[in-house]
Specification:
This protein has 374 residues and is of the alpha+beta class. It has helices spanning 95-100, 104-112, 114-123, 134-139, 147-188, 194-197, 252-255, 287-294, 297-306, 317-322, 330-373, and strands at residues 4-7, 12-15, 30-33, 37-40, 54-56, 61-64, 66-67, 73-75, 82-84, 88-93, 125-126, 130-131, 141-144, 190-193, 198-201, 213-216, 222-224, 238-240, 245-248, 259-262, 269-271, 276-280, 324-327. The protein has two domains: 4-144, Adenine-n6-DNA-methyltransferase TaqI, Chain A, domain 2 (Alpha-Beta Complex); 190-327, Adenine-n6-DNA-methyltransferase TaqI, Chain A, domain 2 (Alpha-Beta Complex). Helices cover 40% and strands 22% of the residues. Strands 2-10-6-8 form a four-stranded antiparallel beta sheet. A hairpin with a 5-residue loop joins strand 16 and strand 17 (222-224). It is elongated and about 70 Å long.
Length: 374
């Protein structure tokens, strides 16, 4: 077997098909992510002339010529036809090439590697805004093993993707069950305000004994503080104990997130004096249930709505106290917390599966090239 080097110009054909006959509507509009996936577009296309949008059929590729650190690119592996704004560039692998030289699926795996993005950045042009054009794409070189070798490694990739997608479908079924249960509780359970549930605690690090300074990220988890604490008097910092909450109302509107976290570590930590520390004062309510409630997107949207009109868009403590939480009986709370805990764990596993698939792409390409040399 041998390896053959090509310029992509020899293998690809540009797709200029547009939605001229208006066969496709706003519901068919998509965008691309820099993770190399097609997604629902975040751009408001109402009022745009959809006739000028590019049509991408199954097996087609699309990329955004505006580049940040990675190239936004997608490959249509579905059975559906999508349309994209004419700011994008679309292309296919030439039919004759796909039969004899290059599998489109293999090309997609090649695009998924970090090595490709580094290669692409080397070829970009521009200053403040980087651009990667169709001509730049055509200039790239690719080394290919024979088509049967490509297909062998494509099958390995597809098997991994099928496994991850099957896992993800089960995850979505679990989330649907959880959402239905939450929706029922919202309309049937008695509501209590945060002010009725949580008590503010202000214990300071007076003896300067605790040095583990933490903050809260937008995923509502404690994390090592990114603030420079050199020369800072840590005696003024607040202590957070096991099963206590830390809350920050700053920039809630900007981040569209209520920053709150429940501490589950055995050793106390300290946080900035700007934070508020709470403990649960209602023994009929599980702290984990309260945390679960604020982990939902709906709670973040409410926090965003309740935040003030300042530049920082803060959620004042008084407004936070007014937030209502429906409280079912304790055994129902525990069931909901258990379901949410399983969902959260599986969601993390799903993200790990995706990361593993991405990490294996360069290994697959390297393996195919090594086999092609033999």
């Amino acid at each position: 077997m041998t390896l053959t080097k090509y310029r992509l110009a020899e293998l690809l054909m540009r797709n200029t098909e547009t939605n001229l006959r208006m066969e496709y509507s706003i519901s068919d509009v998509r965008g691309v992510l820099n993770t190399k996936a097609i997604s629902s577009t975040k751009v408001d296309v109402s009022g745009r002339d959809l006739r000028k949008f590019l049509v991408v059929r199954p097996g087609g590729f699309i990329f955004n010529h505006r580049v940040h650190d990675r190239l936004g690119l997608g490959y249509n592996t579905s059975n559906d036809v999508y349309i994209f704004t004419n700011d994008y560039v679309a292309f296919y692998v030439k039919p004759s090439v796909a039969k004899n030289i290059l599998s489109p699926d293999y090309l997609y795996i090649w695009f998924l590697r970090n090595e490709f993005d580094r290669y692409m950045l080397y070829k970009t042009y521009g200053s403040a805004t980087l651009f990667f054009s169709w001509d730049n794409m055509c200039e790239l070189e690719i080394t290919l093993p024979p088509l049967p070798v490509q297909q062998k490694y494509v099958e390995i990739y597809k098997a991994m993707v099928a496994n991850q997608q099957s896992y993800e479908r089960g995850l979505e079924d679990l989330k649907l069950s959880f959402d239905i249960l939450i929706d029922q509780i919202k309309h049937t359970a008695v509501k209590k305000t945060v002010g009725e549930l949580l008590l503010e605690v202000d214990q300071r690090n007076d003896d300067d004994r605790i040095t583990n300074v933490q903050g809260i990220n937008i995923s509502k988890q404690f994390m090592p503080s990114v603030a420079d604490t050199n020369g800072v008097d840590l005696k003024k910092y607040k202590i957070v104990q096991l099963n206590q909450f830390a809350f920050s109302g700053m920039q809630t509107g900007r981040d569209k997130c209520i920053r709150i976290a429940l501490y589950k570590g055995n050793d106390p930590i300290i946080i900035s004096p700007a934070y508020t520390v709470f403990e649960n004062k209602d023994q009929s309510v599980l702290s984990e249930y309260i945390m679960m409630w604020f982990s939902r997107d709906e709670s973040d949207r409410l926090g965003w709505f309740m935040s003030d009109s300042s530049i920082r868009s803060n959620l004042d403590l008084d407004r936070f106290y007014e937030t209502e939480i429906p409280i079912p009986e304790k055994k129902v709370q525990k069931s909901i917390v258990d379901i949410y805990s399983v969902y959260s764990t599986r969601r993390k596993i799903n993200e790990q599966l995706k990361a593993q698939i991405k990490a294996i792409c360069p290994i697959l390409i390297r393996g195919s090239l090594e086999e092609g040399r033999q």
